[in-house]
Amino acid sequence: MLGDDAYVCAMPTLYDYPFSGNGYKVRLVLRELGIAYEYRALDILKGHTREPWFLAKNPAGQIPVLELDDGACLSESSAILVHVARGTPLFPSDPLSQTRALQWMCFEQSNIDGVISRARFRRAFPDAIPTRPEEFAAWLSEGHRALAVLEGHLSQREFLVDDAFSIADIALYAYVHCADQGGFSLDTYPALRRWLQRVRSRPAHIAIDDVAG
What we know:
This protein folds into two domains: 73 residues, Glutaredoxin, CATH 3.40.30.10; 106 residues, Glutathione S-transferase Yfyf (Class Pi), Chain A, domain 2. The protein has eight helices and four strands; from the N terminus they run βαβαββαααααα. A hairpin with a 5-residue loop joins strand 3 and strand 4. The protein is globular and about 45 Å long.
């Protein structure tokens, strides 16, 4: 058993599946802001997120979950990013710019997380969920449409919103930077590749497999 209802957090605790780009987003924002946290890795393939102790923290049985030091539990990566970054340079102060950031985060959930990350997971764990070749073909088409949208936007600017690094960049970076693992070549997206390098060059950057708190 990985945990129970009596577990007390001395600091924020991130419950995560290390392969997950959604959990990676939360690790990136916490590192950017210098927020110390405990890390608890769960294996979704082994059903850890369906155990009663975890369902008490998130009834949807999904990671990531960020448990605050007062015991409050936050789920959904986009919501966690907004909560953690509010009042910091990672979340714009201007209302319209805030909305632009949220637009890109919604775009990511529908067009990147729902497509590129799905193809990546199915390729990495082919026995977890049987996938037909035509499904991969559809994801490839949809994913490249989304990547083309990003390429067009980034061809005119350094970052997604106001030319300043924000949680919108973190949200999109998490799965786009490993799109090749889902079968998506980035060779024809020069602006996108330059943006990825700018994000990678940030002092607080960590790799997706770096799970140290």
